[in-house]
């Protein structure tokens, strides 16, 4: 079983999402000739911010032609801004795969050089994103262990190595970096789960075992807590974890061990269908 979990972890790290980035239509009408889009293949566990310089360099000629002095930009899918601090796979599952609309590949994003929406979190540099990730990772560790002992083990050097593993897309480097923390997702006293229910984030900490029956908790228990089971049936909805729809009877402990993101959280994307 352990080998299977490692294999699943590795597959998640190697899984990529094809993306095409086009200019927003507000710019295309001002250009003398069409500007070629940018095609990318982005790891679903990573952050699009890592490619920010590459994206800017590609579209820099447009800025010069239109005399736009703003180097900051944001990306959006339809009208949904791409959050720099959200794993791109989570965003993709939320806006592309979780609806009843036909899934289209590659994911079509538009680039805007205007001021982003109010709720959009801007990061001036990579250090700010690193600090956000470090805070999230430590939070998940605390929730898993229900103790500050594990967070006290996270030295600056360990955190930097974890970050480098994520940036370098190296699961081996990441796994090696977290070994001193002795994180065992299958044997933790609780599980760290982030649920995106109709795009609204709900953070949930739950024990992997029912304290009364001593049975392993499953996705069905999550759905019951969210009132998504009516007359012993799931309400019409889609749900995704790392791009797939697992059997609802699979234990949460196994899902946490196999499909948690590098920040330590298991992301469950749910969209109810009316």
TrEMBL record:
A Pfam family it matches: ATG5_HBR
Signal peptide: none
Subcellular location: Preautophagosomal structure membrane
Domain Autophagy protein ATG5 UblA stretches: 13-111
Span of domain Autophagy protein ATG5 UblB: 192-270
GO biological process, one term: autophagy of mitochondrion
GO molecular function: Atg8-family ligase activity
Keyword Membrane recorded: yes
Superkingdom of the organism of origin: Eukaryota
Keyword field: Autophagy, Isopeptide bond, Membrane, Ubl conjugation
GO CC terms in record: Atg12-Atg5-Atg16 complex; autophagosome; mitochondria-associated endoplasmic reticulum membrane contact site; phagophore; phagophore assembly site membrane
InterPro entries membership: Atg5, ATG5_HBR, Atg5_HR, ATG5_UblA, Atg5_UblA_dom_sf, ATG5_UblB
Autophagy protein ATG5 alpha-helical bundle region domain segment(s): 129-176
Family under the similarity heading: Belongs to the ATG5 family.
Function text: Involved in autophagic vesicle formation.
Subunit structure: Conjugated with ATG12.
Protein name: Autophagy protein 5
Protein's organism: Anaeramoeba flamelloides
């Amino acid at each position: 079983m352990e080998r299977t979990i490692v294999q699943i972890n590795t597959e998640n790290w190697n899984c990529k999402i094809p993306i095409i980035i086009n200019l927003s239509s507000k710019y295309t009408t001002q250009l003398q000739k069409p500007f070629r889009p940018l095609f990318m293949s982005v790891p679903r566990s990573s952050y699009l911010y890592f490619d920010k310089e590459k994206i800017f360099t590609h579209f820099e000629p447009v800025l010069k032609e239109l005399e736009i002095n703003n180097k900051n930009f944001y990306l959006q899918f339809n009208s949904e801004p791409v959050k720099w601090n959200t794993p791109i796979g989570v965003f993709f599952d939320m806006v592309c795969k979780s609806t009843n609309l036909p899934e289209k590949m590659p994911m079509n994003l538009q680039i805007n050089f205007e001021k982003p929406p109010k709720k959009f979190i801007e990061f001036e540099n990579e250090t700010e994103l690193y600090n956000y990730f470090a805070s999230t990772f430590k939070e998940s560790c605390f929730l898993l262990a229900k103790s500050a002992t594990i967070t006290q083990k996270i030295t600056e050097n360990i955190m930097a190595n974890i970050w480098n593993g994520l940036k370098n897309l190296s699961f081996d480097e990441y796994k090696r970096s977290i070994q001193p923390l002795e994180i065992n997702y299958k044997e933790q006293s609780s599980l760290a789960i982030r649920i995106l229910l109709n795009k609204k984030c709900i953070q949930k900490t739950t024990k992997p075992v029912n304290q009364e029956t001593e049975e392993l908790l499953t996705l069905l228990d999550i759905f019951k807590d969210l009132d998504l089971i009516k007359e012993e049936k799931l309400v019409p909805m889609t749900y995704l974890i790392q791009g797939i729809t697992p059997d609802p009877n699979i234990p949460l402990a196994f899902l946490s061990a196999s499909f948690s993101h590098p920040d330590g959280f298991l992301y469950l994307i749910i969209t109810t269908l009316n």
